[in-house]
Design a protein that fits this description.
Elements (H helix, E strand, L loop, with lengths): L2 H20 L5 E6 L4 E4 L10 H17 L3 E13 L6 E11 L4 E11 L2 E4 L3 E4 L3
Antiparallel strand pairs: 1-2, 1-3, 3-4, 4-5, 5-6, 5-7
């Protein structure tokens, strides 16, 4: 069991569900507790249409605090982003999942996708080390 991969996988499952149900999603998170239980995590500003950047900062702060307190062993954030296409310099939609563990190691995974009508086509996942 790799906590980072399990948190990542849950974030991708949630993000795909949000995309397939609503066509979009606000940033959200997931955490793994010391007992290996994985739980979803959300943030709110109290506004109907919150700024995604503020939600990301709230999620990062919550995850960092829980890591520092020893409450969790890993935490991640899922965000709908644009990345450069590997085929050309155009922008393509992607699910970004950043995960950090209790040792401070962090990775980002990107799952590019294309929406055609009511269908969503997912491409290969891109992985890279990152700063959480």
């Amino acid at each position: 069991m790799n906590p980072m991969n399990e948190v990542r996988d849950l974030c991708f499952i949630q993000a795909k569900h949000f995309l397939e149900e609503s066509g979009e999603f606000y940033p959200f998170g997931a955490i793994m507790l010391e007992n290996s239980e994985i739980k979803p995590l959300s943030a709110s500003t109290g506004e109907e249409y919150p700024d995604s950047n503020i939600l990301i900062q709230l999620l990062k702060k919550d995850i960092s605090s829980r890591l520092n307190n020893g409450d969790i062993i890993a935490g991640g954030i899922g965000v709908d982003v644009f990345i450069k296409s590997s085929k050309d310099s155009s922008q393509i939609s992607a699910i970004e999942v950043k995960v950090i563990n209790k040792d401070g190691k962090s990775f980002a995974w990107y799952l590019p996708y294309i929406v055609q009508g009511k269908n969503i086509f997912y491409q290969d996942i891109i992985e890279e080390e990152c700063n959480f």
